[in-house]
Amino acid sequence: RAKQEGRHAYRFFTDRMNAYSIARQLQENRLREGLELGELEVYYQPQVSLPECRLVGVEALVRWHHPADGLLLPQSFLSIAEESGLILPIGAFVLKESCLQMKQWLEMGIAPPVLCVNLSLQQIAYCNLVQLAHDALQHADLPAHRLELELSETILQACGDTERKTLETLRGMGLRIAIDDFGAGYSSLANLLQLNAEKLKIDNRFIGSLSQPQSETIVRSTILMAQAMGFSTVAEGVENQEQLEKLIQLGCNGIQGWLIAQAMPAQECTRWLGSYTVR
Ligand code: C2E
Ligand code: MG
Ligand code: MG
Ligand code: MG
């Protein structure tokens, strides 16, 4: 009898697994199709300095206009993109598209100093990122120092020798590197230093809870560490004036968040940049 039940349990389990993998497969096919049909779009979110609030950068953030489900954020499709390898063509699309946009802003005289583009580990590990970045810059006729690659602290931990070499080559070409979502992982200080990054972005979660003494302590010591290592600091997810004032007090170099602007479609960001007067 026990055997019988066991068999039932097994069948139930495989049925669920099948349902799961079929759903995944459908989502993957839909994402591939969406990419081919041009349903993916790059949004842009400004970064400003503290305390002057000068424009210091714009981050490219991918969105998916799903025909049935509406506007989708990366959290609802990036894991499928990673699992399926679609992150490679998606990443290439974001890089190429945003470099062209940056070039247009430069020609209009409203460009921020840098364009920031997020990378996934697969992009560093499997595809020819050096060639890809080179081509995107050349295609847009954009100087390398205008492009900053954002790598999360978690990705940096997972980088091996090959990936680190790739990053070194990119640094050698004049691209900038930012450590994204800092505080969410546990990198060794030696690894951080070796990376030779320009910028360290403090993770949203500590800014959201900045009024709590524990988060304030983490942010304060992160800023001190970054200063000692020669990185500038940008706080992500700054939503209100209290957070802004606290960050100025703590010596943070910049902010990104809804207090300044949300991520916007290119046209809207063009209007935003054109009317932003603090430079
Ligand atoms: P991230 O790089 O840390 O980007 C910052 C995220 O915080 C963005 O979420 C942004 O919309 C959101 N945000 C900005 N200001 C505020 C605020 O004031 N409050 C709150 N609550 N959130 C704010 P988004 O656009 O949903 O992107 C999520 C993550 O997806 C990004 O986190 C990044 O890791 C990843 N991602 C986005 N675009 C790409 C891409 O093209 N390639 C890769 N590999 N990853 C991407
Ligand atoms: Mg980022
Ligand atoms: Mg971030
Ligand atoms: Mg983040």
Automatic annotation (TrEMBL):
Protein name: PAS domain S-box-containing protein/diguanylate cyclase (GGDEF) domain-containing protein
From-to range in the entire protein, with total length: 868 to 1146 of 1146
Taxon lineage: Bacteria, Pseudomonadati, Pseudomonadota, Betaproteobacteria, Neisseriales
EAL domain: residues covered: 24-277
Organism in which the protein naturally occurs: Formivibrio citricus
